[in-house]
Design a protein that fits this description.
A hairpin with a 2-residue loop joins β1 and β2. It contains five helices and two strands. The chain has a two-stranded antiparallel ribbon. The protein is elongated. With 101 residues, it is mainly alpha-helical. The protein starts with a helix and ends with a helix.
C-alpha cells in the first residue's frame, strides 16, 4: 500500500518519531525507548513512515538506522506555504490596524 506524507504525519506518534530522527539517525530499539509502547508498535509506525518515504534506512553492521528524508518533508512545507502567506497577510493587517490605533 502506498501512503502519502499527510497520512504519515496525521499520527502524533509518527510526528514524534520524525522529530527524534530530525536530531539524529536511530535504530528501532532506540526509538522504542522514547515511547510507552511495544517495539512492534514503533516498528509499525516506522514502516508507515518508510512507505511514504518520510524516512530512509541504512544498514550499519547488524543494525538498521533510520533517517528523516528532508526532501519528502518539503511536500508538507509547500502545502503549508499557502497558509503561511495567508497568516502573514493577516498579521500585516493586524500590525497596520494597531499602528492606526
Amino acid at each position: 500500500m502506498r501512503r502519502d506524507i499527510f497520512q504519515a504525519i496525521a499520527d502524533p506518534t509518527r510526528r514524534a518519531i520524525l522529530a527524534l530522527l530530525a536530531i539524529h539517525a536511530m535504530t528501532p530499539n532506540a526509538l522504542a525507548e522514547h515511547f510507552n509502547t511495544s517495539r512492534q508498535a514503533v516498528s509499525k509506525h516506522i514502516q508507515i513512515l518508510a512507505e511514504c518515504e518520510a524516512v530512509t534506512q541504512k544498514q550499519s553492521g547488524r543494525e538498521i538506522y533510520y533517517h528523516v528524508n528532508a526532501n519528502k518533508m518539503k511536500e508538507v512545507d509547500q502545502w503549508l506555504d499557502t497558509f503561511r502567506k495567508i497568516w502573514e497577510d493577516r498579521f500585516d493587517q493586524l500590525d497596520d490596524l494597531l499602528k492606526d490605533l
